Amino acid sequence: FSLLSLCFTQEPLQKNPLVEKIISQISPSNIRASIEKLASFETRHTLSDTTISSKGIGAARRWIKSEFERYSRLSKGRMQVGYQEFTSEPSTRVPHPTRVVNVIATLKPTDSNSSTSSRIFIVSGHYDSRATNVLDSISAAPGANDDGSGTALVLELARVMSEYEFNATIMFIAFAGEEQGLLGSTYCAEIARQQGWTIKGVFNNDIVGNIRGGTGEVESTYVRLFSEAYSPRDTGVIFRQRNSLGYENDGASRSLARYIKEIGEKYFHHFGVKLIYRRDRFLRGGDHLPFHERGFAAVRFTEAKENFDRQHQNIRTEGGRSFGDLPDDVDFEYCANITRINAAALASLAFAPPEPEGVEIVTKNLDYSTEIHWRPVVHPTVAGYLVRYRETTSPTWQNAVFTPDTMIANLPSKDDFIFGIQAVDKDGNCSLVSLPRPSR
Prior knowledge:
Order of helices and strands: HHHEEEHEHEEHHEHEEEHEEEEEEE
Structural class: alpha/beta
């Protein structure tokens, strides 16, 4: 923010030291220990035995809950841990009524009644696993990478972030039933819709620990971030207006992905975030989708190069090729790097004030320049606003101008650029971007 120093009595920090500290506390060895523990349950299939103390999905969820509870003791009462349970009725992948249990740790601000505590950010992975046959609940299915890696990432973020106080609520969720049809996440997303949760972003991490692709390529320098432009709620007038304004790539999920890339690479600049403008990989799906489909901003992190011999496979060797999802094939430093990207964006959003509302771009006359105004964000940490703009073909924001006011004029032509407004605090934490609507 090169222009910020012109507008503050004290030059704000380019990076928030607390966010940097959070990133520095991410431990590859802790992630390794979690993945190895999850794999030790032999199978975490949703239909597996839940009564055995050391095997099956029941043992796995009890261990995950105990880890969350251990971390909650560092939170001074701000982190609450529990199960979210329901019965999944019979379907193609669920032959009989089955109890499905999500494990959730919820970290709230000290003042849980504040105006900003209702904002929710979710970081998730799924803790169930599977073998080749989707209904095989007995064979070994260690699921080290799919999705022990994502679950370990969530646990590590809960461990580190439990000691900090944020301006928003963070939910750390280990979903069940993903392999049987996104069961746990669909239930959670529907509850969120029915109860009116103010979810501002879902960070779903699924298969985030492998660096050696199935074709032999090795890639450890970036993570793929999938986001979809439109949700099923973007219909009618909303759809037509977004198209007319050139906001095809500025839906909630894609805007969240853009934020994650910018903030993640800002704090952890030697690791990249590759934006993938697609809801997910072909023939696959993830726990972000039920949230996106209900209008919430939701994205998926997945490793750069996948190896399908390590996914949904019984452990075996055939023709000199090994199959199965074992901890030996996980790169724990790579998983830690993806955890750090999550941490940077998640912490920045949770520290930041809410995004501006009532943003309007003046269109009553033919003009060579642009004027935008918005309502003030009423929050004690707000120091001003960043006006962002980019060419209509650019996937990321290219320019930032700071103002302490709630309007700005003399910007480049609105015909050639897309604009957005962010609230920013004295430490440089920025909210999500709010896009302007035309005003005459």
